[in-house]
Amino acid sequence: MTLNPQQLKNTQNELQQNFELSGLTKEQVAGDLNISLTKLNHLFTLTQNSLNDPWILRNYLIQKVEEQGKKPVPFTALVGDWHQYWFLNSHLIDARKMSAGDN
Q1: I want to staple 83 with a disulfide (CB 3.0 to 4.6 A). Which of 37, 90, 97, 100 is the partner?
Q2: What are the φ and ψ backbone dihedral angles of 45, each rounded to 5 degrees?
């Protein structure tokens, strides 16, 4: 799935807004997801290689926002059931298994 420039910008903003709503630090998020801060920054800017990783971050942030009793900012491009997208590995997403390395 390729996002157009507007979708990229919107998704970056939606990830950032949900991160802020979560009340977590980047260090906490990176620790929970077992990734480096470098990789986390790549995820927030959507400059990493894996298509699964942004979905893992998305799902994680939605869960953390909801645990705070807040309503997550809706996503406009990362929508629907990731199990139905042929280009995603839903097993990796469900297991929160990020791709190796910082990219």
Answers
A1: 90
A2: -100, 0
3-state secondary structure of 66: helix
Amino acid letter at 17? Q
What is the C-alpha to C-alpha distance for residues 16 and 61, in angstroms, rounded to an integer? 10
Q: What are the structural domains, with CATH classification, of the chain?
A: 5-94 (1.10.260)
Q: Is residue 12 left, alpha or beta, with left meaning phi > 0 and alpha meaning psi from -120 to 50?
A: alpha
Q: Which pLDDT tens digit goes with each residue over 16-25?
A: 999 999 999 9
Q: Are 29 and 19 in contact (CB under 8 A)?
A: yes
Collapsing DSSP states into helix, strand and coil, what is residue 69?
coil
